[in-house]
Hints:
By secondary structure, the protein is of the alpha+beta class. The chain contains 13 helices and 18 strands. Helix content is 41%, strand content 20%. The strands form 5 sheets. It has an 8-stranded mixed sheet, sandwiched between helices. Helix 6 crosses helix 13. The protein is elongated, with a radius of gyration of 27 Å.
Amino acid sequence: MIDLRVLRDAPDLVRASQLRRGADPSLVDSAVDLDARRRAALTDFERLRAEQKGLGKEVATASGEAKAELLGRAKALAEQVRTAQADAEAAAAELEEVVGRIGNVALDGVPAGGEDDFVVLREVGSPRDLAAEYGADFVPLDHLDLGERLRAIDTVRGAKVSGARFYYLTGVGARLELALLNAAMDAALAAGFTPMITPTLVKPEVMRGTGFLGEHADEVYRLEADDLYLVGTSEVALAGYHADEILDLSTGPQRYAGWSACYRREAGSYGKDTRGIIRVHQFHKVEMFSYTSVEDAEAEHERLLALEEQMLALAELPYRVIDTAAGDLGSSAARKFDCEAWLPSQQRYLELTSTSNCTTYQARRLGVRERTASGETRAVATLNGTLGTTRWIVAILENHQQADGSVRVPVGLRPYLGGLEVLPVVAPA
RNA sequence: GGAGGGCUGGCUGAGCGGCCGAAAGCGACGGUCUUGAAAACCGUUGAUGCGGGACACCCCCGUAUCCAAGGGUUCGAAUCCCUUGCCCUCCGCCA
């Protein structure tokens, strides 16, 4: 939720942000009008309510005929109070509906436009030249071919048991995921994050508060019988962790690293990334989440990005960092950096991490505040970022494949695989 | 699954349908005292919205809302009724 004060005092700022996002700027004008209407209705209600309270006190002390007369007046007034209250509540609800559709104000520097209007900040490492290494006629295997030869990935049985976009990680595949996620947890721990294993089912208000029930509500699994939602990321549970609390950030940001399963319906992505485990309904992820003061948010964002890059370096993957365009931010984020690894089989980049600065947008809706040195309360900023996911296996297998279809284990992951240096082919094609 | 008991401010814990945003204690903060600290004593101490005061903020004044959540009864609800959630105890069942 955007700050109503900003909406009131600087509607141009919000309007400009909407335009950069390719969203509807007229929502801002509707919201300003509705805000004025709500305040007027509230004032009416308060005046009547105060009158009612005063009259109530007279009723309490009166008796006999005077009391009967007062009661008559009080009854009439009660009806007016009811009406005024209903008006005020209706106006507030209407305002909330419109305000909820306005996205966070994109930070200065965020490129305008949609999905394709990102800016590449840097490219790190260089894609392997497999033709030069293994001969001009070498055809790189994709992650699924490799995964099947290593007996690491089984999508056939995943589909048999659960349907399309489900898979088993088997043997070294399962070990590789555990290794990667353990390495991610260790990196987070070393950087001062508190490790967390979080619930993956959450209540509607938490899901709504984190902003996942907006435009992309159909991406989320819902358990009708229990009125609970399956999370698409532990960000949801970590953001909800301090909901309705007043935090003490005087000693710096509060940092959490969540490990959880993630569930996504992938509605609307029919036919996209159908092969292998690039786009699946269920996967695991280690996610960083920070609560900071507004002042610290941008520095924390850089910090999260640096940690992501540290993990990509540990996995020895070539990647680029992009500054996502305003239209591709999602409602809560004010800025978002993605790291995309090179995918040899497809000759393209694939998103492996995403870190968002949600400024106070998410915290305001969830009621997460801090107490400042001077004693007031105010909304905190929230940030999140990916440290490792099942999808990383795709990039690791493809980028570290060897001529015979085996896969070299990045040095940094070896300690997590009992010193294993190579994932050997056990099921040749 | 069944039967009871409970849910009040940072914590403990009172609370008769109107005088209750709520006693008291603890904690915290400020002060007195002290070379300093402790103790003692004095004082302050919930959140949020709205309106006003030369109104960006702080501050002051007024007002409303919040006693698990939602609904109802009533001129008036922390207090009575209903529904839901959560916690505790007991019984049963199953990891």
